[in-house]
Amino acid sequence: MRVAVIGGSGFIGMPLIESLKRNHAVAVVHRTHKQLEGVTQIITDINKGSGFWIGIQQFKPDVIVHQILSDANQAKELISHCKDLKCRVIVLSSADVYTAFAKFIYKDEGAIEPTPLKENAPCHALNFAQGAKDLLPAKNLPEWVTHDYNKKDVEDVLMSQNSVQCTIFRPSFIYGCNDDNNRLGYFIKSMSDQRPTIILNKGLANWKSSFIYVDNVVQAITWSVEKEFSSNVLFNLGSESRSMLTIIESLAKAVCWKGQIGLSHDYETSRCNYSQDFDLDITELRTAGFNEKISLEDGLKETYEWGKTTSIINFYAHEDKFIRDNPDSIEWQNIA
After folding, report:
1. What is the pLDDT of residues 241-250, one digit of tens each?
2. Architecture in CATH of 69-334
């Protein structure tokens, strides 16, 4: 099969290319100058013109995997070209479309959304490209995001047409090697530095999400390339619901860290609303036949081996001072 990947040089894209090229001819559209072996490269910035479609047309793909589809106009352009190419489309959307996410970042003051979230759970109408620093705390928007960025608009365009078969994934909390956001980095660094304690805000500790290892995301996309559906489909993409405390305890056990985890409501209040869980119902994906291959323990071990070599700011002095100043507010958990 011939597969074109749009956005293929990053956290998910690099391992995806390695997975796909084992059994398929692969073309990659990306804006870096990384040397990607064994694939056709189309180097361009997709937000600076549509000339890259000439290269895709010459490649004649059976499937296009679009990881960086940003707005409704790009979605319409994608469908128009894929109709001519007579190819299928796989799109990586985001679980951030759910109203629960707006509540999680305090952009919706309504009642807490029940979880786990099904694919038909309410979605918000926030525009992430406007006020991005408020909408996405602690990180900058990627360069591929357009001014009209809205993944829900993208989904609506794709799902409302029947000329091109579309498969859409809504992933939740993705972790793993080469994570640009280094989501588990602070905990990994604390354990690799053999810190005796890690302090957590109790709300964060109890907060639940559907944490998924990056290689399992890659596996899901590869599975969908090789599986044809008769109509448009949309899947939540994650693993079973787990609390952040469970993830940290699992990481500790996987790497044999024997310290203590201290929980306190008084430690590091956040701009995030941890009373709003963000775990996904993945029944539809399981029913369709997908099951991830890499276990939580193995994914955490691999992430640890990568993460302990990365640079990250530590707050050890701040943690130690909090322990000294607030001994009665901390509930300690021993890692066996």
Report:
1. 999 999 999 9
2. 3-Layer(aba) Sandwich (3.40)
